[in-house]
Amino acid sequence: MPRWMETRDDATLANAASTLFRSYFSEDPEGVWAAPGRVNVIGDHVDYAGGISIPFALKANTAIALRRSGQPTYRVVSLAPGQHEASRVEIPINEVGPGSPDNWAGYVVGAIWAAIEAGVIPCAEGLDMAIVSDVPVGSGLSSSAALECSAALGSLELATGRSASEAERTALVDACIRAENEVVGASTGGLDQRASLFGQEGKALVIDFQEGSTTLVPFDLSGHGLALLIADTNAPHALNDGQYASRRGVIDDVTAAMGAQTLREVDNAVVRAASWANAEGRDAEVTCKRVKHVVEETDRTAEAAKALERDDLNTFAKLMRDSHESLRDQYEVVTPELESVFQTVGSRGSRMTGGGFGGSVITIVAEDEVAALAERIAQAAEAQGFPEPSFMVATPGAGARRLV
Ligand code: GLA
Fold this sequence. Notes:
Layout: E1 3-4, H1 10-25, E2 31-42, E3 52-68, E4 73-79, E5 87-92, H2 105-117, E6 127-133, H3 143-160, H4 166-184, H5 191-198, E7 203-208, E8 213-218, E9 226-232, H6 243-257, H7 269-280, H8 284-309, H9 313-329, H10 336-344, E10 350-353, E11 360-366, H11 370-383, E12 390-394, E13 401-402
Parallel strand pairs: 1-12, 4-6
Antiparallel strand pairs: 2-3, 2-13, 3-6, 3-7, 4-5, 7-8, 9-11, 9-12, 10-11
The chain binds alpha-D-galactopyranose (GLA).
GO molecular function, one term: metal ion binding
Pfam family, one: GalKase_gal_bdg
InterPro entries: Galactokinase, Galactokinase_CS, GalKase_N, GHMP_kinase_C_dom, GHMP_kinase_C_sf, GHMP_kinase_N_dom, GHMP_knse_ATP-bd_CS, Mevalonate/galactokinase
């Protein structure tokens, strides 16, 4: 039997966060907030280059119960999916900043720190926090953004006593990116935080990072008798281990050498990157492959957005496969575990999702074939001695919000 990921509804998740809060802090929380993980349907490794991505918010959320403590510290207790004993971190407010804390709590208190620095959260105050989550860690489904966005939105709304405006949410996206870049040391690009804070039930987001625009589009596969199956290979990845930064570094270097703000602004980017790499004594072949992926993936995602608009899922599926192949052959972020899933699903619309180097593969499959396909994927993994995958059928859920 394939292993399915657990996704609790809002009331159950809020209750779990409140219960954890009470058991550690012996008081009731003042409120509970949630932020979802995301799946990126197409457009990977382009957000930091001014490209286009089409993610949606998952129905798997991270919930945070909060209470102002009146102390000069943050006390955080957290239960990640599958964890039986909670992890605890206590840190004085004035010790939070670049590189500190250098553990998972950096996502949580780092996001609050960056939002205070940006003036979005009016002032620093001590907080007790209890976190529970259904977003699997290291699966390419943005468990880190779910941590950041729930903590940042919760602290903001607790401090102001009202719902965050759209402008405040936009500012929180930037604060969460800063936390990830400076506190945690992962040079990620902003796709995840935008999806988590701006997702909507039933909708995917077409995010144009050059324009800074987000357009919500209907994403209803079940209207076609189809489903989006996520297969988490359980071959974990980390985005602060240097691999992600090495890919981004090439794109940032080429962009800077061309005197541009983003790679998207550069005409003939592949040819010009090759001349630059040769002149600089860099590996021209690798440079061209990386740049080619980013340029083509952005064009492909623009085409995918148009295909979605005219409900043309055949074209959309083909673009997904092209995207996976480019991430594998040009960007080289696909592991054998990811490739095994991609090969097992045959000619269906399928691709790795997120940063790669491990994580998940998504596949568009007929609703009545989901169970059989999950079984086949699990068997293929077992036959190759890979970890047992876990599965989720994903439909677009709500963005970050107050639960209680
Ligand atoms: C990770 C990063 C994002 C994005 C994706 C790849 O999820 O956090 O910013 O770069 O990888 O598209």
